[in-house]
Write a structure and sequence with these properties.
It contains six helices and ten strands. It is of the alpha+beta class and 353 residues long. Among the domains are: 72 residues, Type Iii Antifreeze Protein Isoform Hplc 12; 121 residues, no CATH class; 41 residues. A hairpin with a 2-residue loop joins strand 9 and strand 10. The N and C termini lie far apart (213 Å).
């Protein structure tokens, strides 16, 4: 090995050791300066001694004090357990607090206050519940603390008389306060729910109440870190199939015609059924009339006839007409004609017997 290589290796080792020494000296100087300025002055913070969940009552055995840098104390933290439990009445946890996690004022109730939705509402915010089902409620995967978008689906009648369905994004980034009657954010198993309670401003609460009667509300679960809104637009049936409004109107007209034909057929069937019922009623009426007549005949047949009185026969005079033929007598005289040349001469002479 060359001498130059050995020298370079030795110099590298010397410079490395020197760098380590200088870094240690600098760090020691920084710690000394921080100690002199009081930045590492000791403090205490109250933390959870055991995991706490929504509604747990805070007691001295569930809290403890730990050392904490004075310049890094979280906002709303308590320095002593006595401060955390101060006041008349007990305090309860409003959300899950892990072991050794600082107990902040925003995570617990006030003295004597119950762990209810009113305790977790923000300043000027309201709690509004909307009805959902297993599909509209994102199959039960919405939990307290999640953020959701509220979608409104409705159908309106257009100017040409056809129905048009569309979906609008009504509200974005709404905080879920409770699912059914459960407000525990530690709940992690999906369940089929019937209602979801959202945190909303007064105006948003009015929108939700009005929209619940105007159409169908459904939820869209947002990403946990997504807090900003996004530009949305109305989605109609034409957006699903790429059809033009004329195509949609034509299809709707065909559906209307089919519905009208079905209604006419149903009406015709109803009329036939009514005619059949009327005929059955008439037949039943005739049968009842026949039964009544038969009953009357039976009653008459049971009555004994009165004895008949025979009167004397009437005498009628018979007149016979006799026709007699009489031979008329011949006349006493007769007229005789005699031609004399071309001249006819007549003579009246007595008839010979």
């Amino acid at each position: 090995m060359r001498a130059n290589t050995l020298i370079m290796i030795l110099l590298a080792g010397v410079f490395g050791v020197l760098a380590v020494v200088l870094v240690n000296i600098w760090l020691a100087g920084q710690r000394s300066a921080m100690a002199q300025t009081g930045l590492v002055q000791g403090s205490t913070v109250v933390v959870a001694a055991i995991p706490l969940k929504f509604g747990d009552v805070l007691t001295t055995d569930k809290l403890r004090e730990v050392a904490w840098p004075a310049g890094a104390v979280p906002t709303g933290a308590f320095k002593t357990t006595k401060d955390a439990l101060a006041g008349e009445g007990t305090r309860q946890a409003l959300q899950t607090i892990s072991a050794n996690e600082p107990v902040l004022a925003s995570k617990i109730t006030g003295p004597g206050q119950r762990a209810t939705l009113s305790a977790v509402l923000g300043e000027g915010m309201k709690a509004v519940s909307i009805r959902v089902n297993d599909v509209l409620g994102v199959a039960g995967f919405v939990f307290p603390g999640d953020r959701v978008d509220v979608l409104l689906t409705r159908t309106v009648r257009s100017d040409n008389g056809s129905d048009q369905s569309f979906v609008d994004v009504l509200l974005q980034g709404m905080k879920v306060l409770a699912v059914d009657q459960v407000a525990d954010v530690s709940k992690d198993s999906p369940t089929v729910v019937k209602s979801v309670t959202l945190e909303a401003s007064t105006k948003d609460a009015q929108k939700l109440t009005l929209a619940a009667g105007a159409g169908q509300l459904s939820l869209a679960l947002r990403q946990a870190a997504a807090s900003k809104g996004e530009t949305t637009e109305r989605v109609t049936l034409s957006d699903l199939t790429g059809e033009t409004p004329a195509d949609v109107a034509k299809r709707q007209a065909e559906l209307d015609r089919q519905a009208a034909a079905d209604a006419a057929a149903a009406a015709e069937r109803q009329r036939a059924e009514d005619d059949r019922k009327r005929a059955d009623d008439k037949i039943a009426g005739l049968a009842q009339a026949v039964d009544r007549v038969g009953s009357k005949l039976d009653d008459l047949s049971k009555v004994k006839p009165a004895p008949a009185v025979v009167s004397a026969p009437e005498v009628h005079e018979v007149v016979k007409e006799v026709v007699k033929y009489v031979t008329p007598e011949p006349p006493a005289r007769a007229t005789i004609g005699v031609f004399r040349g071309v001249k006819l001469e007549t003579y009246d002479v007595p008839r010979q017997p």
